Amino acid sequence: MSHTFDYDVLFIGAGHGSFDGAPALTAAGKRVAFVEEDRVGGTCPNWGCNAKIILEAPAKVLQTIKQSDGVITDTAKIDWPKAMQRKQKIVDGFAPAIRAGMESAGIDFIFGHASFVDEHTVAVGDRQVTADKIVIATGQHSHRLAIPGKEFLHDSKDFLSIPDVPGKMVIIGAGFIGLEAASIMQTAGSQVTVIMRGSEALPAFDKAYSDQLMKHLAAQGVVFIKNSQVQSVEENGSAYTVSTSTGSYPADYVLDATGRIPNTDGLNLDTLGINYDEKGIEVNEFLQTSQPNIYASGDVIKKEQPKLTPTATFESQYIVAHILGEETEAINYPAIAENVFATPRLAKAGVTIAEAKAAPDKYDIVQQQVADDWYRLVDFESAGQRTLIYNKNKQLVGVIEISDKADDVVNALLPAIEFGYTAEQLKRLVTIFPTIGYSALGYLG
Ligand SMILES: Cc1cc2nc3c(=O)[nH]c(=O)nc-3n(C[C@H](O)[C@H](O)[C@H](O)COP(=O)(O)OP(=O)(O)OC[C@H]3O[C@@H](n4cnc5c(N)ncnc54)[C@H](O)[C@@H]3O)c2cc1C
Ligand SMILES: NC(=O)c1ccc[n+]([C@@H]2O[C@H](COP(=O)([O-])OP(=O)(O)OC[C@H]3O[C@@H](n4cnc5c(N)ncnc54)[C@H](O)[C@@H]3O)[C@@H](O)[C@H]2O)c1
């Protein structure tokens, strides 16, 4: 690469869409920098997955106790301010650790907002930085409803720092963030109401399964209001009223969980002719934008694949291999596992039930009730249903499960889905007994 540029590769954004791949560049002798306008590590460690799971952990324990039929006395309570302190203490370690890891790999950091000057130049404040290749990995931000009283709405970033458990919480939207927040806060002691503009939650999942998740959360006390259009939020003293087409709902805290929008504003993409819209930046099969030296990685890409951390990791590693010339083929995404971190969990990977039903000549669908599996009873599980999809060679190609350990089950089955192992081959696995992995693989035969 030419040394007329300051860097060989410049990443805009220092989240998983950048930092998982970048060290392989410096290991290969490339000069690399990140531009970051906020905390190193981006959404997932600071305001997403990691922050969320640290707060969810005590809620899951408490919910399991509630499911223990009195085997463990139901007097436990979450000390929310302590749970929040613990979350913050763990989270505060991530950004410095990621930065130190990158710097020890020889990567420079430039702090500030990046915007393009031309296809090889990025302005950060008064400084101009040039690079041969540039990777846009700017992620997404929360969508905000444009309604009267929008200033009283909180987004997921605020929610993950909520100082105490509100008596009444209204959540607008029944997607990943809405249902995970509902599960955590209802268990922690809030009375949660979820307002849905339609009647279906989590469109990425089969409706029969997302309906079951809502049914379980409703049994825990969450109230779902379907087909309701939010009109306004009014402040009444220290509380709020959320007015909708179906009625008014009192709240001490209102979470707007109506989706996320790619961070494309302020990058000056129009001057470079880079194509993008409200779903993200358009890329080709090599993750290059319409300017071939400029790639996009992670959540900011317009794509069919789920916008998740492991997808961003996969993309950053692909882009780095493509830049190094080690990868010349089009990106070939593996089966991507998805999970809603509620109790119970809802997880899936591979071919969906709808896809299998649409092609009966290619797929067989097997339904399994797993709630009565003795090992799940041991663990005080409350729910358990799974659908397995096989191809005509009897290879597992898809799974969806609702259960308290659906995330672990789908992870355990993922190698079979990705690499096409047959039930016969899986019989060679002598796994640890009794565990959920043993149980999951045992049901495949
Ligand atoms: C509440 C929540 C929970 C989640 N839970 C999960 C989960 O459990 N599992 C999972 O797999 N995924 C989860 N996700 C999704 C996951 O966080 C994202 O898929 C992942 O963070 C995407 O990484 P990224 O690098 O593409 O973007 P980000 O992590 O968002 O990083 C983008 C970075 O770019 C910076 N930036 C933006 N614009 C500029 C600019 N112009 N100049 C300089 N810097 C800029 C931002 O400050 C940010 O640091 C969750 C998301 C949220 C919001
Ligand atoms: N466990 C995980 O992996 C996890 C957790 C959280 C977030 N995420 C990622 O973050 C993304 C964003 O999550 P999210 O929950 O913000 O988005 P989402 O797309 O999952 O859900 C948004 C919900 O808001 C609803 N909605 C939109 N406009 C509305 C309106 N005007 N009134 C009422 N409801 C409205 C939608 O119908 C949808 O149900 C996810 O798609 C996922 O990629 C992943």
In short:
By secondary structure, the chain is an alpha/beta fold.
Written description of the protein model:
Its EC number is 1.8.1.7. Residues 337-436 form the Pyridine nucleotide-disulphide oxidoreductase dimerisation domain. One of its GO terms (molecular function) is glutathione-disulfide reductase (NADPH) activity. Belongs to the class-I pyridine nucleotide-disulfide oxidoreductase family. This is Dihydrolipoamide dehydrogenase (E3) component of pyruvate/2-oxoglutarate dehydrogenase complex or glutathione oxidoreductase (Lpd). By secondary structure, the protein is α/β, with parallel strands linked by helices. It has 3 domains: 7-142 and 261-323, FAD/NAD(P)-binding domain (3-Layer(bba) Sandwich), CATH 3.50.50; 150-258, FAD/NAD(P)-binding domain; 344-442, Enolase-like, domain 1. 32% of the residues lie in helices and 26% in strands. It contains 15 helices and 23 strands. It has helices at residues 16-19, 23-27, 43-47, 49-66, 80-104, 156-159, 176-188, 207-219, 269-272, 309-323, 353-358, 374-378, 406-419, 423-426, 436-442; strands spanning 7-12, 32-36, 108-111, 114-118, 121-124, 127-136, 140-142, 168-172, 191-195, 223-225, 230-236, 239-244, 247-251, 253-256, 260-262, 276-277, 280-281, 294-296, 338-340, 345-350, 363-369, 384-391, 396-403. The strands form 6 sheets. Strands 1, 2, 3, 4, 5, 6 and 18 form a 7-stranded mixed beta sheet that branches. Strands 19-20-23-22-21 form a 5-stranded antiparallel beta sheet, with helices on both faces. Helix 8 links the parallel strand 9 and strand 10. The longest helix is centred in the first third of the chain and has 25 residues, at 80-104. It is globular, with a radius of gyration of 23 Å. The chain starts with 6 loop residues before the first strand and ends with a helix. The model has no long low-confidence stretch (mean pLDDT 96). Bound molecules: flavin-adenine dinucleotide and nicotinamide-adenine-dinucleotide (NAD). Residues 145, 172-178, 180, 197, 230, 257-260, 306-308, 339-341 line the site of nicotinamide-adenine-dinucleotide.
